[in-house]
Automatic annotation (TrEMBL):
Keywords: Cell membrane, Membrane, Transmembrane, Transmembrane helix. This is Predicted arabinose efflux permease, MFS family. InterPro entries: MFS (IPR011701), MFS_dom (IPR020846), MFS_trans_sf (IPR036259). Residues 1-374 form the Major facilitator superfamily (MFS) profile domain. It is a multi-pass membrane protein. The keyword Membrane applies. The keyword Cell membrane applies. PROSITE patterns: MFS. It is found in: Cell membrane.
Amino acid sequence: MALTVLVYQRTSSPLLSALTFAIGYLPWLLGGPLLAALADRLPRHRVLIATDAGRAVLLAGMAIPGIPLPVMLALLFLVSLGSPPFESARSALMADVLDGDRYAVASSLTNITLQLAQVVGFVLAGALVAALNPSAALLIDAATFAVSALWLWKGLQPRPAPASESGEERRTLLQDTADGLRLIRRSTRLLAIVGLLWTATLFTYAAEGVAAPWVDELGKGATALGVLLAANPLGVTLGGLVIARLVPPARREPLVVPLVVLSLVPVLLAGAVGLVLGPGSLPFGLVVGLLFLSGIGAAWLIPLNVSFVQAVPSAFRGRAFGVAVTGLYGVQGLGALGAGLAAEGVSPSGAVALSGALGLVAVVPMLVAFHRTRGSVAAAAPGEGPSES
């Protein structure tokens, strides 16, 4: 957020602002599956600690006053390279520790915690950027990664690498990555889940890429930008709490279809109302409320994640997660870039409306495929035909 504000202040370009936002996700597309395979080759607790420590150092470098903008963006790219191995190791390790409904509840609580952290982080970052400067916000960010690395080092029980436990012969990183791709490609169930995940995410979160120019169109400042970005995670938090605590496990997966629709309709409305009323006329509170409602719908990610885990054998979870999450973050970056490009030709509101409309059309075949494969299980190792029932 600090860099997005900084770039927009210097250039007044929605596209360059969106590019800054997208850089944090693009490494997933460039090397995500390859880096994520490290979660199956190395002890997962070591992967978590090493990536957080490295990101703390890089972010501290970004906080140096007067550092040229291209250098900051390059460092941001390097920071983002730590995400694929970290997220894959974290997801796979949690699935190793917990099973059944314990994993489903833990997954919901983890997602809720993440969303709450984003709510607090966006609001706090907006206040810090407005009161101090982007460098101060980046230095605080570096400190959070250092605390995380220390916490993981103290709190995680060491476990051997999954490959050494399973007795598999040593393979190259590219072979491990290819295994994850083949596992998903050969299963209609996993293809349906991953296709829905990527398509819905592509259009639901595209508005984040034009958040800075959109807030400017609404006549607000950096603090309002933090509130705008926090609205969706707050909705996801409350939606996740409802799913985790009030909805029985057997009824969670059927909620995916209506929740996906709910996540996209408010995005369309937020942009369309802005186009009708014109720049500066759309009430800021209405925009925040619609994005909050979209966030409630975006809680579809929780039951979808559980369905994915249930379909993947333990020894391949790191690789399979790597492929799925690579696409997840990759499409977020592409969605941000697409919205930024659209905002150059129309307006931020127009770009948001377009994202919602296209999303509702594109997600229909994915929802149909997901519904048709419900109840099937794909648990075959790569090299074998998927065993679906």
